[in-house]
Design a protein that fits this description.
This is Transposase. The protein is mainly α. The chain has a domain of about 60 residues. The chain contains three helices and no strands. It is elongated. About 5% of the residues are buried.
Length: about 100
């Protein structure tokens, strides 16, 4: 349950950061957000309880560093059926060059 709860906390904070910076939540790096939140939890253990709301506010402001660039659109490649490999290796004859 602990891992699932941690994952949901990170996703909720990512959504809050995205809302504050007016971007889609998927444009925020999950791993970097996770590291940032872990770091804040480590430092929050030494702070007074009254300083935690201010720390959360600073955390969300620092979220602008985590915004990823827009995804580039890729060209659509048509699907191709691959040639079935031969069951046994075959030898092809080399064509000889003709004289002109």
């Amino acid at each position: 349950w602990g891992i699932l709860t941690s994952y949901n906390i990170v996703r909720l904070e990512m959504a809050a950061m995205a809302k504050e910076h007016k971007v889609e939540p998927l444009r925020i790096s999950f791993l970097n957000a996770l590291y940032l939140i872990q770091d804040e939890f480590i430092w929050a253990s030494g702070r007074s309880p009254g300083a935690v709301p201010n720390a959360l506010k600073m955390l969300r402001e620092n979220g602008k560093r985590l915004i990823l660039p827009n995804k580039r659109k890729r060209k659509a490649y048509p699907r191709a059926v691959l040639k079935r490999p031969a069951k046994y290796p075959t030898r092809t004859r080399e064509k000889k060059a003709t004289r002109s």
